[in-house]
Design brief:
With about 250 residues, the chain is α/β, with parallel strands linked by helices. The chain has one domain: Aldolase class I (TIM Barrel), CATH 3.20.20.70. The chain contains 11 helices and 8 strands. An 8-stranded parallel beta sheet has the order 7-6-5-4-3-2-1-8. α2 links the parallel β2 and β3. The two termini are about 15 Å apart.
């Protein structure tokens, strides 16, 4: 049975004080989450140590960073290395998010280096893929996502690949007024799994594939009922403990 994961990406939100309260609120309600569901929170870099202290000696939620550097160390002002994140300790790191690709020009070459640094330091990458509205409307969505996977994940050996979590973001359904249906999510998740199997065989069947397109309490159950949707990478709804826990509680 594949791992079921609900990860909250806080993005550039909350102060340290607010982040600590959000973490404590999640922990207070964590008994409502079904057994076997892995929760992960991804605060801003400034919060990681504080949140880690609250989570100390607990098995869940796990702690993720929202990014890491492609270099090991050195004169890279403002960057945070995978080794630094592992020392917090973090267990996960989000890489390839659509906002990083669009606003900061992250290419497949850069993302491959980041994944390699993460794996070398014992972090599990949550690797994001997805197409924008123009690509969806031009019927290029499968081509775009397969290229993102091929250019990065296909260059890993199987032992490294099996540590990766994939997150599909239909960028066209975020802030556009358009909505991705559960059928569209399942279609792409099934495509991703079949495409990964071309290089990694049976390992693709055990790879968690998360949905990252405006998942919220009102649609989580329908999405999670789909056979190839193994959880969610949650944005805005992860900033409210009740909503985040309700999403995690949506697994049948």
């Amino acid at each position: 049975m594949r791992e079921k994961i609900v990860a909250g990406n806080w993005k550039m939100n909350t102060t340290i004080r607010e982040g600590k309260k959000l973490t404590e609120d999640i922990l207070r309600g964590i008994e409502s989450v079904p057994a076997g569901i892995t929760l992960v929170v991804a605060p801003p870099f400034t919060h990681l140590s504080s949140v880690s202290g609250i989570l100390k000696d607990r098995n869940t939620p796990g702690l993720a960073a929202q990014n890491c550097a492609s270099a090991d160390k050195g004169a890279f002002t403002g960057e945070v290395s995978a080794a630094m994140l592992a020392s917090v300790p973090c267990q996960y790191v989000i890489l390839g998010h659509s906002e990083r690709r669009e606003y900061y020009g992250e290419t497949s070459e850069i993302l491959l280096e980041k994944i390699q640094r993460a794996l070398e330091n014992g972090l599990r990458p949550i690797f994001c893929v997805g197409e924008v509205l123009e690509e969806r409307e031009s019927d290029m969505h499968f081509q775009v996502v397969s290229s993102q996977l091929r250019e990065v994940l296909f260059r890993l050996d199987p032992d490294d690949f099996k540590k990766v979590i994939v997150a599909y973001e239909p960028v066209w359904a975020i802030g556009t007024g358009k909505t991705a249906t559960s059928e569209q999510a399942q279609e792409m998740h099934a495509f991703i799994r079949a495409f990964l199997a071309e290089s990694f065989g049976d390992l693709a069947e055990s790879t968690p594939i998360l949905y990252g397109g405006s998942c919220k309490p009102s649609n989580a159950a329908e999405l999670f009922a789909r056979p190839d949707v193994d959880g969610g990478l949650i944005g805005g709804a992860s900033l409210k403990a009740d909503d985040f826990l309700a999403i995690a509680g949506s697994f049948a």
